[in-house]
Amino acid sequence: MAEICALGLDVGSTTMKIVGVDGAGCLAWHFLEPTEPRIEEQVARFLTRARDEGGAPPDVPLVATGYGRQLVRTAARRVTEITCHARGVYRELGHGGTLVDIGGQDSKVIAITPDGGVADFAMNDKCAAGTGRFLEHTAARLGVSLERMGQEALATGEEVAISSTCTVFAESEIVSLIAHGVEVGAILRGLHRALVRRVVSMVRAVGLTPPLMLSGGVVRNPAVCRMLEEETGQRVFLPDHPQLMGAYGAALLALESG
Question: Which of 20, 24, 68, 91 has CB 3.0 to 4.6 Å from 11, enough for a Cys bridge?
Fold first, then answer.
């Protein structure tokens, strides 16, 4: 295993991620698990794991990001997710463009300049529509696992429109559709379409400058990727570890400041 020279910790709303990079800024080690209520205790466990499993030295520089970054007391810096996601994706893909990050509780669209800076951004953090929570909430109602939702949505040619952009109202709409005998696959396609169109409205607000890049755990869902391509007319590009891009960007910043 390569020597860890810096750490990035992303305290997300649903998942906590930690990344270690070597002296060249290459991803050397990572770990993630669902975010727990006692964040400071979980952060301490993550840092212990980085030392014990990843071999990180005790004085390794650390940058924190994510909604819970202020609770990472040992971080040298606490940086916004916008900056960290842009930095991580730019390093991995090597170019600017438009980045869509779909997380568990919020979504972001970031315009990245040719040299990796942030030109503009839009963020949806007030409503679950357009985020992973929208799919997670409705998956339980439909009796489909979150991991299977995308495949099942793409497995059918039928699609029913979901008019509600609010998660609570969408659930009521789903109950009505089921009562009228609409197939689950058609509902799933409609749900994905509603989520993607919400995200695309943010893309248009920022302005779409190709290429279209994706990050966040939700983009591992194949239906989200397919429909983003359909709705924008652009091919999408994913880093190897889309869910780690915030933590990776934070680690790169820690390496620079360390």
Answer: 68
